[in-house]
Every structure is written in structure tokens, then in C-alpha cells.
């Protein structure tokens, strides 16, 4: 077929005569046919080199001949612009992965700050002291560490003071047999005055520096006083009679409020950091939240929250240092749970079964961690990560239930006392990375001004 016949054939090609909606698209010429026509023209008429008879050669081989196909490819590429072709070389590819990741070279400098060195937690106690005759009684509170870095511990009828600055020990007082034993001790915020609860229902206030009795509070209870808590100049006492008494130590008639809500012995008392809320735990398996901002009366029975989820006595109470309305509580042998409470709403946020009697709780002041001490069967201290409550460490050494714990003023060291008659010191909370100034205690307005004159 020559060029002329291809052209006339194309002109005589009928258009589609159907004028329906679905066939109204415009006619698009067959591009490949046009290219074949151009190539045929270039091979037969447009070749300036004037081969002897290219048409005859092509006609002898036919349109499918190899020579024709080869010449056709060359003709189609002759002086034609390739569609979508790169005119210049493509730009070099961009490196997808930085070289330092694939090589052995150290990572960039700033990435070091993203990884925090894990704190080493010693698995054994730093120091162990003998504590003969310490009472193995779950409901008592016989150990406290004051702001002056002096530890007080009650051994039967005697209260001893251990000065952490020089490791010296001194006897503060020995109570008469008919009045003892000592059932609770608690330092005032000034770190100098110590409250001592007795088996005969009395509470004594002592000046540790002069070793002198300042005052005896009587009449608040009808049984032993097993729990104590300070709130500025208010000393709160909890007794076997189920009463909670607020004593203003600045005035002669010290009893200013009495909370009634527990039916059995009050064995746990803790004021919140703000001093507005008091948590109490009892042998009746109850936790109460009392709010000082509520209307004051001489005898209160109206608590803010009554928490009944524990199934055993609640002695272990600890207010969170970084969230003011978060309280942790621990149940005894029949419960074995640590529970977390929102004290604004009274809601239980979480409950963790420790599989052991919970005797005491302490928060780490520098990290989001909680330390618990336990009774049967392991008699261990357990460090938990909050809020995941993943165990970080278990500290073993005591051979009897660890009933009492106290925290040093800097928040790093914990003292524990157990029924095995030993007092152990653990560097469980480590040393804070940056030492922060200790917040000053609230001004007292001479809280003990009247104490020296009142007996």
C-alpha cells in the first residue's frame, strides 16, 4: 500500500452514525496509524540518501519483514521528540537513611538526653540495728523520722532517739509499767517536740532537746492511743475506742473536735499536704476522709467520704506528694490490696492485689514510685512504679512482718522495723538528680507557747 492509497482510505473512513447520548464523544484519530504513514513516507520518499529501491525491498519482504521493522523504528525516532522523556539527566537520589544510623559512629549528641540512666536500687539494707522488745502489733505506730533528722522508736516502755547525723543513740523516756507500753510516736513539724501515745489512753508531749515533759493530754480517749498525726499546731489522735480527737496544743482545754465514724480501733491517721483533709483507717476495714473546711462542731459524725472497699483492717495510708487529692491505702491479711482514691470524689482509681498483708506505705518524693512493706509470707519491702504498678524491686532481709516504716527528711532513705526486733535502713529512693530546697514549714504562731505552763 502506497502513501496515496493510505491517505484516500483514511478520507473515505465513515464516521459513526449513531447520535445517541452514549456515543457522542469526539473522534480520536488512531495515532499508531499516523505514525506508520509517516514512517512509510520517510522510507520511500523522504530518504535523501537514495537507496537503490527501498520500496521494492520492503514490498518483497512485506510489512512484517525484519528489515522493514528495523527501518521503521529508526524512522520513527528520526528528528522526533519523545513524549514524557527526560531532557536532562535525573537529579541524584536523596539519601533516605542518614549514614550515621547505618554506620558504627555514635548517634548525634542531643539524643543522649532522651535516654535516662536507670537508678540502681540496692537489694540489701545499708545498716541494721537491734530493736529488742519492739511490739509485734499490727495496729500500733512505733517509728517516726523527724525533720531534724532524728529517728524515734518505741521499744516496750522506752522511747529511744537515734540521730542520723552522727549515729548516736539516746533514751528519751521510760514509761511506768502501769501506764505503758508506748503505743505510738509522732514528731511535730518542727522536729523538736515529740508526741507519745500510751496504752493508758494518755498522750505526752516531750521536748527532745531538753528531754523534758511538756504536757500530758488526758480525757480524749477511753483506750490505748495507737495512731498520731500532726497538722501545724493540731495534734490528731486515734484510739482503740474508735474516736479521732483534734487537740490544739496551744490552749488549756486542748480537745477542739472529735470525729466519730469508726466502730473499732483507729490504727491509721494521715493529714494531707495541704492540711485540709484527714484520712483515717480502722480495724473495721473502713477508710474515712474528713475535711476541715466543713462546718466545725465539737463532735462530728459527718465525714466527707466513707470508703468501704477494703476487706481487712486499714493501717497503711499515704498521701501522694505530687497530686494533692490522691490517697493510697493498704489492707491487712484478709485484703492484701493497695487501693488508690480520688479524695475529691471518693472514687477508687485502682486496686492492686499484693498477695501479702500491707503494713505501711511511703511515696517517693523525687520519683513517681510507691514503697510498701508487707507481712506474711515474704516479709518484704516492694517498690512499685506509679501509675503502672509494675514491681521495680523487692527488698528482703526481715524475717518477720515489716510493721513500721519511716522516711528520712531528704526523702531518700527509708527505715523499717519488724517483729524480728531489727531496725533496717534502705537507700531505696536514691539521691535526687538536682537538690531542691526543702520547703519551709508553716509558721506556728508560737504553737507551744502555752505548753510549758500547762501540765
UniProtKB/TrEMBL annotation:
Gene3D superfamilies in the cross-refs: YVTN repeat-like/Quinoprotein amine dehydrogenase (2.130.10.10)
UniProt-recorded Gene Ontology molecular function terms: anaphase-promoting complex binding; ubiquitin ligase activator activity
Stretches the record annotates as Disordered: 1-25, 99-125
Keyword Transmembrane on entry: no
Keywords: Cell cycle, Cell division, Mitosis, Repeat, WD repeat
Superkingdom classification of source: Eukaryota
Residue spans of the WD repeats: 175-216, 259-291, 395-428
Domain CDC20/Fizzy WD40: 129-426
Entry-linked PANTHER family: CELL DIVISION CYCLE 20 CDC20 FIZZY -RELATED, TRANSDUCIN FAMILY PROTEIN_WD-40 REPEAT PROTEIN
Name recorded for this polypeptide: CDC20/Fizzy WD40 domain-containing protein
Organism per entry: Crotalaria pallida (Smooth rattlebox)
Lineage: Eukaryota, Viridiplantae, Streptophyta, Embryophyta, Tracheophyta
Amino acid at each position: 500500500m502506497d502513501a496515496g492509497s493510505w491517505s484516500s482510505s483514511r478520507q473515505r473512513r465513515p464516521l459513526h452514525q449513531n447520535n445517541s447520548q452514549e456515543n457522542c464523544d469526539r473522534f480520536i484519530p488512531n495515532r499508531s496509524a499516523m505514525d506508520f504513514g509517516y514512517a512509510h513516507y520517510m522510507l520511500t520518499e523522504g530518504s535523501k540518501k537514495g537507496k537503490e529501491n527501498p520500496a521494492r525491498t520492503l514490498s518483497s519482504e512485506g510489512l512484517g519483514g525484519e528489515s522493514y521493522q528495523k527501518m521503521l523504528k529508526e524512522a520513527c525516532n528520526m528528528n522526533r521528540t519523545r513524549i514524557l522523556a527526560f531532557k536532562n539527566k535525573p537529579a541524584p537520589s536523596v539519601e533516605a537513611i542518614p549514614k550515621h544510623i547505618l554506620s558504627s559512629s555514635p548517634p548525634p549528641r542531643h539524643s543522649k538526653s532522651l535516654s535516662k540512666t536507670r537508678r540502681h536500687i540496692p537489694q540489701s539494707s545499708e545498716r541494721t540495728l537491734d530493736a529488742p522488745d519492739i511490739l509485734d502489733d499490727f495496729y500500733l505506730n512505733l517509728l517516726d523520722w523527724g525533720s531534724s533528722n532524728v529517728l524515734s522508736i518505741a521499744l516496750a516502755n522506752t522511747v529511744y532517739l537515734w540521730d542520723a547525723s552522727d549515729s548516736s543513740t539516746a533514751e528519751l523516756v521510760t514509761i511506768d509499767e502501769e501506764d505503758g507500753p508506748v503505743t505510738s510516736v509522732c514528731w511535730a513539724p518542727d522536729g523538736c517536740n515529740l508526741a507519745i501515745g500510751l496504752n493508758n489512753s494518755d498522750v505526752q508531749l516531750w521536748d527532745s532537746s531538753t528531754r523534758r515533759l511538756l504536757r500530758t493530754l488526758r480525757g480524749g480517749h477511753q483506750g490505748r492511743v495507737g495512731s498520731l498525726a500532726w497538722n501545724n499546731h493540731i495534734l490528731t489522735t486515734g484510739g482503740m475506742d474508735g474516736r479521732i480527737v483534734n487537740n490544739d496544743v496551744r490552749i488549756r482545754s486542748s480537745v477542739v473536735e472529735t470525729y466519730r465514724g469508726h466502730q473499732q480501733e483507729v490504727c491509721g491517721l494521715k493529714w494531707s499536704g495541704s492540711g485540709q483533709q484527714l484520712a483515717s483507717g480502722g480495724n473495721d476495714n473502713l477508710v474515712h476522709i474528713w475535711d476541715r473546711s466543713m462546718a466545725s462542731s465539737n463532735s462530728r459524725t459527718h465525714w466527707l467520704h466513707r470508703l468501704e472497699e477494703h476487706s481487712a483492717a486499714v493501717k497503711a495510708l499515704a498521701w501522694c506528694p505530687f497530686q494533692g487529692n490522691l490517697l493510697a491505702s493498704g489492707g491487712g491479711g484478709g485484703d492484701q490490696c493497695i487501693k488508690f482514691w480520688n479524695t475529691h470524689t471518693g472514687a477508687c482509681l485502682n486496686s492492686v492485689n499484693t498477695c501479702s498483708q500491707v503494713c505501711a506505705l511511703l511515696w517517693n518524693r523525687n520519683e513517681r514510685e510507691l514503697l510498701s512493706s508487707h507481712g506474711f509470707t515474704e516479709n518484704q519491702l516492694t517498690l512499685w512504679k506509679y501509675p503502672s504498678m509494675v514491681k521495680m524491686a523487692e527488698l528482703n532481709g526481715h524475717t518477720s512482718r515489716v510493721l513500721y516504716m519511716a522516711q528520712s527528711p531528704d526523702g531518700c532513705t527509708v527505715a523499717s522495723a519488724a517483729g524480728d526486733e531489727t531496725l533496717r535502713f534502705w537507700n531505696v529512693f536514691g539521691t535526687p538528680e538536682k537538690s531542691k530546697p526543702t520547703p519551709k514549714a508553716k509558721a506556728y504562731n508560737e504553737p507551744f507557747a502555752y505548753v510549758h505552763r500547762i501540765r
